[in-house]
Design a protein that fits this description.
The structure is a single chain. This protein is of the alpha+beta class and 251 residues long. The chain folds into 2 domains: 6-85, Phosphorylase Kinase, domain 1, CATH 3.30.200; 88-227, ATP-grasp fold, B domain (D-amino Acid Aminotransferase, Chain A, domain 1, 2-Layer Sandwich), CATH 3.30.470.20. The protein is built from 6 helices and 13 strands. The two termini are 16 Å apart. The structure holds uridine-5'-diphosphate.
């Protein structure tokens, strides 16, 4: 499917393509079926994943916007297209952790499943060639990516997003273990939530299931070869649909 207002391809990432539109401040994002893990060393194509991530992200953005979180989201257009405000992405992966899992447990003596209260905010420099290294405050300052008030705003936004997402997913009987978001500056310098929020970027455990593998409803199913990836994403979509406003159609 192509959209009538589509301009040239601006950027192709691992899971999405970004196109110009006929509006200089707006871009169209196509969600792909491609799945990658371990810095793209593991790859697959999962039919239907792009569509589900687009729909889940749109539902989540609708709810966050309704709760006052500034986002780049403008609406959906067809099953796997989203139109968003053009932003300058901050090259920092913003990770919030409510329960210990993943790299945290590989790097520190913290057991998987340990509740983190208060939640932990980890910032990584977004650079595949460097393997997205963990940032310290001093390194962040040295890179000069953010002013001190912008750094403070990033933290406030990350925790506000976490609070809203925890409530949203809890209503859907899902445990938000951790997630990664990307933030960007709009043309007028406002810091907003960008990119996507989906089972590709969140760890979600099914509160209705106690088995440690069976409860996983996110990209860890792909990372750990657990199978049923698209089915798990479908379950997340179904539950999120029950607790979020219907995504608006862009036009
Ligand atoms: N994450 C992501 N993109 C990345 C790295 C991490 O979306 O490039 C997400 C990941 O899905 C998880 C959270 O960020 O929900 C924390 O990931 P972690 O640092 O534990 O790394 P991982 O175990 O995925 O290597």
């Amino acid at each position: 499917m192509t959209l009538p207002f589509l301009g040239p391809l601006l950027h192709e990432g691992k899971a999405k393509r970004v196109y110009a539109t006929d509006h200089p401040d707006r871009v169209a994002v196509e969600f792909k079926d491609d799945a990658t893990a371990f810095n793209a060393q593991k790859r697959a194509s999962l039919a239907g994943k792009g569509e589900m991530n687009c729909r889940i992200s749109a539902l989540v953005f609708e709810r966050l916007a309704a709760r006052g979180v500034p986002t780049h989201y403008l609406g959906v257009e067809g099953p796997n297209w989203m139109v968003v405000r053009a932003v300058r992405i901050v090259p920092v992966e913003v990770v919030v952790r409510n329960i210990a899992a993943g790299s945290l447990c590989r790097q520190l003596p913290i057991e998987v499943g340990t509740r983190l209260d208060p939640p932990l905010l980890d910032l990584y420099y977004k650079d595949d060639a460097l393997g997205d290294p963990l940032l310290t405050e001093a390194r962040l300052e040295r890179l000069g990516l953010l002013t001190s008030p912008q750094r403070q705003r990033l933290g406030e936004l990350a925790f506000a997003i976490n609070a809203e997402l925890c409530a949203l997913f809890a209503e859907a009987d899902l445990e938000l273990v951790d997630f990664k978001v990307e933030l960007g500056f709009t043309g007028v310098g406002e810091l907003v939530l960008a990119d996507e929020i989906s089972p590709d970027t969140c760890r979600l455990w099914d509160r209705r299931v106690s088995d440690a593998s069976d409860r996983i409803l996110d990209k860890d199913r792909f990372r750990q070869d657990l199978g049923g990836v698209v089915e798990a994403y479908g379950e997340v979509l179904k539950r999120v649909q029950g607790v979020c406003p219907e995504p608006r159609v862009y036009r």
